[in-house]
Design a protein that fits this description.
homodimer; 412 residues; alpha/beta; 434 Repressor (Amino-terminal Domain); Rossmann fold; DNA-binding
DNA sequence: CCCGCACGGTAGAGCGCTCTCCCGCCCCTG
DNA sequence: CAGGGGCGGGAGAGCGCTCTACCGTGCGGG
């Protein structure tokens, strides 16, 4: 088709030097006569040369990518639910289409486009056996739905956007890029490991959504460079960044007390998650130390709905509440809705303190007073740690703990 | 360090066959005696062989990745604003740290960790000249902040999470992965082009946040495989997927009319964006055809705040409104807040119809009646189109237009 | 009986780059 | 003026894979 892309060889010929010299110029290495450097650079310009990554990777054994993996529970049965509302209450109006199925117009010619190319004979060249992975082909669609739902759900929490921001912020100046992977089943987890073993990426940045995510252990066992966001449920010899969650709980408690709240409750995160426990512990301890030994707790699932449900039950049992601490902002939003539904004004009747300082904290009304987690910085540091491990600058697992900060807005 | 990873050669020796045979087995190609297949597979097992991607890519000229690029405006001056609130209203409580700066504990040993490794002499080996890109090193931190902010902002809109979900849903069954890139400045845009030209990825999936994003044209000019989400501002010979926005506006108008609304206004998206114009046009036309020639319009910026502001001004000028159509869900949320602040009940006094059916549609109260955009399917189709282009199954630019659907919930 | 031809496998030539040697030159020193 | 030591540059050996020849069987048909 289009003529071959120019190679080092071509540039060398054009500039009248050897391949090695061009390589040196391109990589900015060693002492090359400025005049020749110029010569070479001009030749590069003329030929429109772009170094072939694959060839470079083959010899350097380094890619320019790291895997950014969002890792879920474990067995493939996974969460589910939650998202149902989206579809269940939909209602058809125009009789044209069966279910959001698109239609081609203009020059469009759909034909074989949409139906997962299960047609051709070149199937073998694709996903299936391409790399010794046996599975493939068959259960595509089933796994597919799961996949989409998981990814969508993950990014519905603004938290992950901040992680991505922090990671990219660190990677980009180093000309590196994250490849996005989701690992919520044994197969997808294996895929991550395989991908790294094949040299698809130099290491992994792992954000788990579940306490006993087996991925970190797999990675550690395969001796692949990896850094975690948050301390793993079971100890694993990997570096990680985390927040002083206990401290965050303390900040929330102190703020509510300082405001004069006396009948305080809390909506905790999933108690299987260490972070949830620590936030709760820090909150409780502080309250207890100030003479409030008993704090009603309801457990939520870090979602708006669960926050609303938890708050509703708390209101029922303790109608005279005047302060609430929720373990994240999404649940705070839900709690506020529940409080409002029960005729409580926020913050006049009940003060609410969230956690994270995510984007909803400023978009919801009243704007949330919350415990800020410096997610972007944590993510950037995570990325830096991985870099260190990859380059061998650091061998031992290391952890970096960040301090939370109280951000006072309108809700408390 | 750890002993070399096993190669094809090793496996071949172990199995007592030739390299080529092992390769065939691994790739599931052609006729290989089942007995030998078994032999080879066992040898693979024993050696723990994983094919080296770089080597394979070098000869096949195909990677297993596509770039998923979120592309912003143009000149680097970019939006800004909006996110300020996050930080401005923060308040310090404990005197320990200067500004969300983390602190190392446990085995932590920060030292050179955080400060962007501006130390070593191996700088040259990194981002800088590594690929002829001259820039680098210097303005790292400045560009950094921009970068982080952009990425965070982008993912604050649940819309992008759905795009990612759709893309991954299509890619994963094919053992492909998206590498995430943000292109909001001329440099970052060039980086995307360079990355593709270097063979870092086989093609690009582009989601623009701005109408006259120059990236599509750059990509087309470089004859790189690329597919866009939404029709580009200026015509560009690239495939794209899009929604029948006009149709969406019509659905919203019909619903409000059917509900009996008569004093209807609308909060449009940025009018520079084609989609905004079309949604508005469809909405207006339908209303006009039903005898409502005049529809007050306020322009928003697709954010909660802008929706609130727009709605506030509309209320001021037209206190007797009974129906609103907003060009996306985030603005609907803002509009509802504004309406509530002005003592209007939704939907009793004013009916509100959003657009997108994003996750906020179900989390906000009242839950949003909205025009659903099948983003996941659109993204999956976009991905499929790219695949076709990459494999040469499709040469001409193609567009696929999807139909929106009305989802009735509580707000109208 | 021999030819042709599938079938199952091997040999080996690259893919485009990096990097270690090595060599020739110039300058400095003894 | 000989000898040593940079320094700038070239030659060439791979990196690990794919894939195009090509070759040796065994078998059916002329």
């Amino acid at each position: 088709m289009s003529r071959q892309a120019p190679t080092l060889e071509d540039v060398a010929r054009e500039a009248g030097v050897s391949r090695a010299t061009v390589s040196r110029v391109v990589n900015g290495v060693r002492n090359v006569d400025p005049a020749i450097q110029d010569l070479v650079r001009r030749a590069i310009e003329r030929t429109g040369y772009a170094p072939n990554q694959a060839a470079r990777q083959l010899v350097t054994r380094r890619t320019t990518t790291v895997a950014l993996v969002v890792s879920g529970a474990g067995d493939g049965s996974e969460t589910g639910g939650k998202e149902d509302g989206h579809r269940r209450d939909r209602q058809r109006r125009d009789g044209q289409r069966t279910d959001g199925e698109g239609v081609g117009r203009e020059e469009a010619n759909r034909g074989e486009v949409n139906r997962d190319g299960t047609s051709g004979g070149e199937v073998n060249r694709d996903g299936a056996n391409r790399d010794g992975t046996s599975g493939g082909e068959a259960n595509r669609d089933g796994a597919n739905r799961e996949q989409i739902a998981f990814a969508t759900r993950v990014f519905a929490d603004p938290f992950f956007g901040r992680v991505v921001g922090g990671v990219v912020g660190h990677l980009r100046p180093r000309s590196m890029h994250p490849v996005l992977m989701f690992a919520e089943t044994p197969e997808t987890r294996q895929e991550v490991v395989t991908y790294l073993r094949q040299g698809g990426a130099d290491g992994a940045l792992v954000v788990s959504t579940h306490p006993d995510d087996p991925l970190p252990a797999l990675l550690a066992e395969a001796r692949l460079p990896a850094v975690l966001f948050a301390r793993p449920g079971r100890p694993v010899p990997l570096s990680y960044v985390d927040l002083a969650h206990r401290e965050g709980g303390r900040l929330a408690a102190e703020h509510l007390l300082a405001r004069g709240c006396r009948r305080i409750v809390t909506v905790a995160g999933p108690l299987a998650v260490a972070a949830s426990q620590e936030r709760l512990a820090g909150f409780r301890d502080t309250l207890a130390r100030q003479g409030n030994p008993y704090v009603p707790v309801a457990e939520g699932g870090f979602t708006v709905d669960s926050g609303m449900a938890a708050m509703t039950s708390l209101i029922a049992e303790h109608p005279d509440i005047d302060g609430v601490f929720t373990a994240n902002d999404l649940m705070a939003q839900g709690a506020i809705q529940a409080l409002r539904d029960h005729g409580r004004r926020v913050p006049q009747d009940v003060a609410v303190v969230g956690f994270d300082d995510s984007s909803v904290a400023v978009t919801c009304r009243p704007r949330l007073t919350t415990v800020r987690q410096p997610v972007e910085e944590m993510a950037a540091t995570m990325s830096g740690l991985l870099d260190d491990h990859i380059r061998g600058r650091r061998r031992e697992p290391t952890s970096v703990i960040f301090d939370p900060e109280l951000v006072v807005r309108d809700s408390a």
